[in-house]
Design brief:
The protein is α/β, with parallel strands linked by helices and about 350 residues long. The protein has 2 domains: about 1-205, Multidrug-efflux Transporter Regulator, Chain: A, Domain 2, CATH 1.10.1660.10; about 220-345, Rossmann fold, CATH 3.40.50.280. It has helices at about 15-25, 30-35, 40-50, 65-80, 85-95, 95-105, 130-140, 145-180, 190-205, 235-245, 260-270, 285-290, 330-340; strands at about 55, 60-65, 220-225, 250-255, 270-275, 305, 305-310, 345. The relative contact order is 0.10.
């Protein structure tokens, strides 16, 4: 199964080099120098109190992950304050979930610019991220579904769809996905829980369909993943943003067969068709060209849709006359501009 966090990509892929670095971890010697203790002390704590590395390399080599580092930093602080080592180990271990969440927030440091941000003053270099990313990561790692739901709802209420998606949901999804990728199948439950609640939060932002517009009004925006593409979260974000603006939509979701997509276009006469492709193998320029040439209506007054290509799969594959937004905000701005003209669909 592909990592669902990649659904959140809006034009660029994950920072693979960061994933490899996080996956490699620190050696015992490097961690000892960082903490100011001896390697023997780290091995002793591992043996006596079970505070050891999550990842062990070939043979007996230890590799310490960000989670391990956070737990050991807490251990060092507690023992320095006079707490007995055994009690300090128990306390530090109980805080492991928050340590993972902070590491995830650190991975989210590539969040888009804009909005108020905070830099935490903790033992981990959290990076320049929104406070909401840290809270959402903590709740997801704890598998605290009510807290995840509340965090997402607050982000949408406080900032709107665009900011909530680009600066809270996307960075946290990417961080969890990278954690999953660097830890085998660990944290898959965290990724699934978070993705489910992100989808639920976006769908709650859609409005019930109102009464049909006048006959001469432009058709809706049709949103669909190309055949073989299941990554629909970005389309769900776009659908929610369009609903927030009061624009009509038809959401078809993941992996729409070419024949069904063509039939839908000719039946409903959409003003715009958005085709999402996360991977280059799924992106089909002939399909996009076919949809751009689809027609509907009576002879002499036929219409054609404007085609918008979304997702990193379309990079390097220009389609003449097709739109290529670079972000959710860009897509919403372009579509709003087309509808403000009154006749976004082509005609023949």
């Amino acid at each position: 199964m592909e990592k669902t966090a990649s659904q959140a990509d809006l034009g660029t892929g994950p920072r693979e080099s960061a994933s490899r670095e996080a996956g490699a971890g620190l050696t015992t010697g490097a961690l000892a120098r960082r903490l100011g203790v001896s390697p023997t002390t780290l091995r002793s704590w591992d043996r006596r109190y079970g505070i050891g590395p999550e990842v062990r390399g070939e043979g007996r080599h230890r590799r310490w992950t960000p989670r391990d580092v956070a737990v050991l930093e807490a251990m060092c602080r507690l023992t320095s304050a006079g707490v007995p080592p055994a009690e300090a180990a128990r306390t530090a271990s109980r805080g492991a979930e928050d340590a993972v969440a902070l590491a995830l927030a650190d991975d989210a440091e590539a969040a888009p610019t804009g909005g108020a941000r905070t830099r935490a003053s903790g033992t981990l270099p959290l990076g320049d991220v929104r406070q909401e990313c840290r809270g959402l990561a903590r709740a997801a790692v704890r598998l605290d579904a009510p807290a995840v739901e509340q965090q997402l709802a607050s982000a949408v209420d406080d900032h709107g769809i665009v900011v909530a998606w680009q600066e809270v949901m996307v960075p946290t999804l990417h961080a969890v996905g990278r954690k999953w990728a660097s830890s085998g199948d660990r944290y898959v439950e965290v990724e699934h829980l978070l993705s489910w609640h992100v989808s639920s939060a976006l769908r709650r932002c859609t409005r019930p369909l109102g009464t049909p517009g006048p006959a001469h009004a432009p058709g809706p925006v049709l949103l669909a993943c190309v055949p073989g593409e299941q990554h629909s979260l970005p389309l769900e974000a776009l659908n929610a943003g369009l609903c927030e603006l009061g624009l009509p939509t038809r959401m078809f979701g993941g992996a729409v067969p070419a024949e069904a997509l063509t039939a839908a276009v000719t039946r409903i006469g959409p003003a715009v068709v958005v085709l999402w492709a996360q991977t280059r193998s799924a992106a089909s320029l002939p399909l996009a060209q076919h949809i751009a040439g689809a027609q509907w209506g009576v002879r002499g007054a036929r219409g054609r849709p404007v085609v918008m290509l979304g997702g990193p799969g379309w990079l390097g594959r220009p389609g003449p006359g097709m739109l290529r937004p670079t972000s959710l905000k860009d897509a919403l701005d372009v579509l709003t501009g087309l509808y403000s003209q009154g006749t976004p669909a082509g005609s023949q």
